[in-house]
Amino acid sequence: MACKNNLVVKQIIDLYDQLSKLESLKPSKNVDTLFGQLVSTCLPTDTNIDVTKMSEEVKDMRSNLIKLCGEAEGYLEQHFSTILGSLQEDENPLDHLHIFPYYDNYLKLSKIEFDLLSQHTSHVPTKIAFVGSGPMPLTSIVLAKFHLPNTTFHNFDIDSHANTLASSLVSRDPDLSNRMIFHTTDVLNANEGLDQYDVVFLAALVGMDKEAKVKAIEHLEKHMAPGAVLMLRSAHALRAFLYPIVDSSDLKGFQLLTIYHPTDDVVNSVVIARKLGGSITAGVNGTRGCMFMPCNCSKVHAIMNNRCKKKMMIEEFSAIE
Ligand SMILES: C[S@@+](CC[C@H](N)C(=O)[O-])C[C@H]1O[C@@H](n2cnc3c(N)ncnc32)[C@H](O)[C@@H]1O
């Protein structure tokens, strides 16, 4: 297994060397091909690689690679959001989201996040905050369109251009134009109002290294309502070369509920936690949204749990003081 690990790490280093030498990370045949190779190299989960135990040189390469991936992801979203936003007036951009190369991944990732959310909360959230929503706020859009038809999504992004592109994506949709709100701010400056959300999502690309990620989580812990749910994205095994890892130790002040590691082509792991001090039955500030109606979700959870427990891909946790 060791030599196989060394080989795959060497392939990742080689791809990093090629990417780091590129003039631009904006979408092009070469950039798309290299990132496609990188993602497929990092997808296998049948490996015991722990990126935190690698040499300093590999750790440095990893932190630079994560930043390159984040920059390229931003350009990719900007590229397709601009195309969609420039469709003629009688076209609804939300009817053409499939042109985004990773749209299917977002459909699957948002379904995992919705299922975990309905497993850990007894009420349909009325207001959700998504921090780091980007030019293509696909998580909010997919959740709003397919899973939470009565929930309002407040999307926070540090980049005003990202919000301009994102709001023009939804502006022609009769439903989502009323349920998607955009705020331009660094999450670290978002103080008042974060306690009004039943659920806060933190994008994988907010906090690109451990220190920045923990800073963002600590800020959210300070301002979220007791009992509110924090949904984060992490990475597992080789996928940790693409995204930062969120550990249980990063979540002080929260009860870590579940970490779910996909084994298919959904790259991110999903982490769900609840801010300590609240009740799991009421919404935030004691509001009570309507109940999650019993549906096949519980069966889905059972399947998820059984399937994942067997492969140890789902972990339950107790409260962290
Ligand atoms: C490219 S998007 C990815 C999220 C993806 N669109 C989704 O729907 O899941 C990540 C966004 O996070 C934003 N971001 C990074 N750091 C941030 C911060 N400290 N506060 C707010 N937004 C931030 C970036 O500007 C970027 O647009």
UniProtKB/TrEMBL annotation:
Gene3D superfamilies: Vaccinia Virus protein VP39
Superkingdom as given in the UniProt entry: Eukaryota
GO BP annotations, alphabetical order: nicotianamine biosynthetic process; phloem transport; pollen development; pollen tube growth
Pfam families in the cross-refs: NAS
Reactions that this protein is recorded to catalyse: 3 S-adenosyl-L-methionine = nicotianamine + 3 S-methyl-5'-thioadenosine + 3 H(+)
Keywords from the named record: S-adenosyl-L-methionine, Transferase
Record InterPro entries: Nicotian_synth, SAM-dependent_MTases_sf
Gene Ontology MF terms: nicotianamine synthase activity
E.C. code: 2.5.1.43
Entry's family note: Belongs to the nicotianamine synthase (NAS)-like family.
PANTHER family: NICOTIANAMINE SYNTHASE 1, NICOTIANAMINE SYNTHASE 3
Role played: Synthesizes nicotianamine, a polyamine which serves as a sensor for the physiological iron status within the plant, and/or might be involved in the transport of iron.
Protein's recorded name: Nicotianamine synthase
